[in-house]
Amino acid sequence: MGAEEENNKRWPQWLKPLLREKFFGQCKLHADSHKSECNMYCLDCTNGPLCSLCLSSHKDHHAIQIRRSSYHDVIRVSEIQKFLDISGVQTYVINSAKVVFLNERPQPRPGKGVINTCEVCYRSLVDSFRFCSLGCKISGIAKKRKDWTNNLSDSDDSYSSTSIGKLKKNDDSFTPSTPPLSAVNRQIAKRRKGIPHRAPFGGLIIEY
Question: What's a Pfam family in this record (predicted)?
């Protein structure tokens, strides 16, 4: 399984399509209604932004409402945390409700004295958070996982090369040793088998 495919399986199938959508346009099906603003999204169908009147066709589906803050899309924590782990993403309080931003909001440079910033777009954050938005969390975790996979692959290659080098070195230096002849073996080797030797008292000793 590739790193990108594995990363895609980490997140719900509706998340990336949600982050790519453009909300707050006028609904083509209900253009004459004053409720035609498309600020709803069905997590089951993932077929684009919906207006509140479109939801009648999505009964028993999981739908969420997108809101706006400073021209950026946000969603209430109470809604999104039912379907997604938002740990590490900074929350903001808007109209007395906690929200998270859908996508990154880069800033030219962090303010003075800022220590903690978003790991992706470098926006200033409170110390306990890592990302400024859901989009940055996806990008940041995907990058870390890719770096980890590459490091693991490099380590495996290095280990294999080192192991092969050691084996080759050992093979080159290996020469089978011949065990030294013992005193008895040397004596036998010197004697010619089958040749009679005269005993001290004139008799013959026959070796078989």
Answer: PLATZ
For 93, list phi and psi in degrees, rounded to 5. Answer: -105, 115
- Name the one residue in this structure whose structure tokens are 């080759």: 168
What string of DSSP letters covers 14-49?
THHHHHH---S-B-STTTTSTT-B--EEETTT--S-
Angle at 101 between CA 95 and CA 102, to 5 degrees: 135
Global pTM?
A: 0.68
Q: What is d(CA 64, CA 76) in angstroms, rounded to the nearest whole number?
A: 9
DSSP state of 54: G
Chain Cα centroid distance, residue 52: 38
Tens digits of per-residue pLDDT, 87-113?
999 999 999 999 999 999 878 777 778
| 130 vs 137: CA distance, rounded Å | 8
User: What is the H or E stretch that residue 140 is in?
Assistant: helix 134-173
Q: With contact defined as beta carbons under 8 Å apart, do 104 and 138 qualify? A: no
Q: Which two tokens stand for residue 197?
A: 């030797």
